[in-house]
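Annual report, structural modelling task.

Input specification for the 2-(butylsulfanyl)adenosine complex:
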Amino acid sequence: MSDINARMEELRKVIRQHEYRYYVLDEPLISDQEFDKLMRELVRLEELYPELVTPDSPSQRVGGEARAGLSTVVHRTPLLSLDNAFSLTDLQAFDRRIRKAVESSYMAELKIDGVSIALVYADGMLVSAATRGDGLLGEDVTPNVRTIKTIPLQLRTPVARLEVRGEIFMPKSEFVRLNREREEKGERVFANPRNAAAGSLRQLNPRITASRALAAYIYDIIHIEGENIDTQEQALAFLQAQGIPINPAYRLCSSIEEVFEYCRQYEEERHNLPYEIDGAVVKLNQYGPRQELGQTAKSPRWAIAYKFLAEEKETIVRGCELNVGRTGIIAPTALLEPVSLAGTTVSRASLHNFDLVRDKDIRIGDTVVVHKAGDIIPEVLRPVVEKRTGGELVIAPPVHCPSCGSRAIRPEGEVAWRCENLNCPARLIESLVFFASRDAMDIDGMGPALMEQLVARGLVANIADLYDLDQDTIASLERMGPKSAANRIKAIENSKNQPLHRLLTALGIRHIGHKTARTLTGVIKDMESFQTITADELAQIPEIGPKMAESLVSFFREPHNLAMLERLAAAGLNLEETETTESGGPLGGQTFVLTGTLESMSRSEAGEKIMALGGKTGSSVSKSTNYVVVGLEPGSKYDKARQLGVKILSENEFLALLYESGA
Ligand code: IVH
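The model returned the following structure:
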């Protein structure tokens, strides 16, 4: 027992030292995995010997909610929550309590449905960003928040200290994009933008956060030194002047009825906003009266949340349709008794995957509760079990592809079932639709209905066939006249001039989306070069991982694909990158020297990124060096930089600079 006690004491000590090096000094000695291993050993021993757990153990500080890896931040001012109002009567009761004690106007704001964040700026620099946690202890997400482009890393007019609160959220469009991408990869989808924002923010790897377009609105100044602020109106103006994002949809109201009017207006308009809101927040405008009213343990007395009702409806599942996507994923869609929901009539809802159908136990014939995820995507939330009659049918995973009949396969580690037949007609139609889509070749008017007919009639069996179509053929299809056929032909003709990155996207190569295609054609400027480049060479390009490299190489070695590319070339398609990035670039004229090991990327990757932004890298430090980027265990270049007074960047600062520069 004393051996065990000694080991636990040692683990606690070592973990504390590593935490200090990681979080305070920003100079970790061991990898995250090694750190996690130590923490797991400690937690396991503590589970076995609960009597030996000490209150100051690092496992206790991390608490049940925080994951090993993100450190804890103590909020100097706790993050409170708000009482709720659901009606004008509730608002009027709030108003009476206020009016009994003080005089003030109200500020009405939108209640953004995201994740609360506490930011601290010291001497004008962003030094800390923490999640709410339990209100007293939050998680340190500073490196992640630094990747959110709209949050300034520096104030325009620095003040000694500024502590603010706000909301980090995922715009609806990004939520839809991310879930679509996840679904295509056979990964689990996020239930709503709030979960997606929380998941993206609480990543151990800031690069993942950076790849998701998070946004933020700041709504409160908690503490400020070096500036006088007396009202919420002034606070919002001050934040805006500092370049801090605020939601412009606020309204100063002189009566609670006016506040209610604001709430009603946005309850109507919420579906037109680019982000999700779950209500409005009403606050006293003046700080003086706020102070007088004070707060309870849980919430301030000077503010209240007006909550919108969650938009949910009941309807009946009439059937389940299986759709085969371009990548072969077979996805179930519920066919619903039409129901009006959040501004549209809903008759279909994606069930995402068969694990979800099983877990939620959704059956054909069930009465179900539906809503719109992210205010956009219709979803079945749950069956109303009490309404079952016994005649409902269980929805089972597919045995065969519903389009071509080949065996359905579930690859290991994926939630999706797939048709792996590359010639499957359903996959072909989806690939053609994708080829013509906005982000790809942008061929107007070539949607699913048309492509389906073209494939069904044997007119198109491959992308290249699209360029052999003539006006008469298209005019002979259903719902097509000579005029619309002519427009389609013109659109197809125009698409021949699209830049290479669009064609590369349009080919639908696995793991190569629009963004990656752009990165690639920034370096590889013509289609021919893709046919000879090796996976190793591709992997040298920043942002191109081994999976992408492998996928590209196998695509460009496949004889059918090469034959198709040849036909595209013969049809006169542009095979060169014509849309070039600007010369100069945001880091134009700046010289960087790198020393030590970087954690988030290799040194050559860092070099490529600097060059892509117009900067240069040098091998030795001189007076003309602009920045020295210092990784783990830096060499003599670090000392030289200090001697010469050259600006030194930690890895985090370097990442922030890259993101600021648009990498
Ligand atoms: S003021 C004392 N204003 O709603 C708390 N909160 O319980 C003062 N929220 O999770 C909060 N938009 O993060 C305020 N314009 C807004 C807000 C807002 C969203 C969130 C907040 C917290 C919850 C309030």
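The first strand starts at residue 72 and ends at 74.
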